[in-house]
Amino acid sequence: MRIDGLQYANWSEKVFRQLREGGVDAVHVTIAYHETFRETVLNFEKWNHWFEQYPDLILKGRWASDIEVARDTGRTAVFFGFQNPSPIEDDIGLVEILFDLGARFMQLTYNNQSLLATGCYETNDSGITRMGRQVIKEMNRVGLVVDMSHSADRSTIEAAELSERPIAITHANPYEWAPALRNKRDDVIRAVTENGGMFGFSVYPHHLKDKSDCTLESFCEMIARTAEKYGVRHLGIGTDLCQDHPDSVVEWMRVGRWTREMDFGEGSASNPGFPAMPSWFRDNRDFEKIEAGLLAVGMNSDEVAGIMGENWRRFFAESFGPKEK
């Protein structure tokens, strides 16, 4: 089983076919960065057209059982998430409505301070806000996963402790392996995993050691060492693949509508645009290389199977929808 914890590709028939060629059974897809509620609904509508247009390649994922349906029919289950809480605007009632539309993940921040928590690029991390506490409670109630991939350290640790259900960092890497504002320090990873949450490893070059020149062996060795520290059960892949987008899209991702200047974050104005992907992971057809690389660094087949998809499948099954009483 192969499950990717996060992608933001420029979706097309070509990419959908590459998902199938790569044997990707399920993928968590970002459908909002800075969008309002109405704009996010339009993105759901766009995906509904794709599901109608390519029913032999993709299907809408709502529950973990949809992954089995996808596997049995040779398709990829697509699960939706937001990299920013902007779709709920300032209305907690929209959490359940967006879940009913198909959302299964929501980040509490995207780099900046939000109404809910502090982003990883802010100087001061004040933690989870008053509204954030209530939104986490509501997300727990309906079964929308709390994602802290772009959040600051204190906010992430507090979210892991406040949430009554395990949370996720869907796409990042350990800070000690590759120092970057978006990567996570030991106490953050420990807080998430010890509370039953998931950590997805990213292949986005700004998060890699040696960036675009990162080797497959280095990446896989990093995963193996992380498994030794926190346990393999809570680890997966979250590539953060941004395939086929023009460079103008990365500017939208970084700055949205909040500034007229280029954000100082990943890449910055001195290095605009998307970075070159490492040679061993260009698109979804390359998942088998990661699988082989993990075996090559000494992980056993069960551990590799967990990281490549089984751990995400279990997490989906435990997380999506109201919690059984």
Walk me through what this model shows:
The protein has helices spanning 13-21, 37-53, 65-73, 94-101, 130-142, 153-162, 186-194, 216-230, 247-255, 287-296, 301-319; strands spanning 3-7, 26-32, 58-60, 76-82, 103-107, 145-147, 168-172, 198-201, 235-237. With 325 residues, the protein is an alpha/beta fold. It has a single domain, classed as TIM Barrel (Alpha-Beta Barrel), CATH 3.20.20.140. Strands 1, 2, 3, 4, 5 and 6 form a six-stranded parallel β-sheet that branches. Strands 7-8-9 form a three-stranded parallel β-sheet. Helix 3 (65-73) links the parallel strand 3 and strand 4 (76-82).
What's the gist of this structure?
The protein has 325 residues and is an alpha/beta fold. It has a single domain (3-319), classed as Metal-dependent hydrolases (TIM Barrel), CATH 3.20.20. It has helices at 13-21, 37-53, 65-73, 94-101, 130-142, 153-162, 186-194, 216-230, 247-255, 287-296, 301-319; strands at 3-7, 26-32, 58-60, 76-82, 103-107, 145-147, 168-172, 198-201, 235-237.
Task: State the helix count.
Answer: 11
User: Largest sheet, if any?
Assistant: 6 strands, parallel
The strand count comes to 9
What would CATH call the homologous superfamily?
A: Metal-dependent hydrolases
SSE class = alpha/beta
Give the N-terminus to C-terminus distance in angstroms: 30 Å
Predict the CATH topology.
TIM Barrel
Average pLDDT score: 95
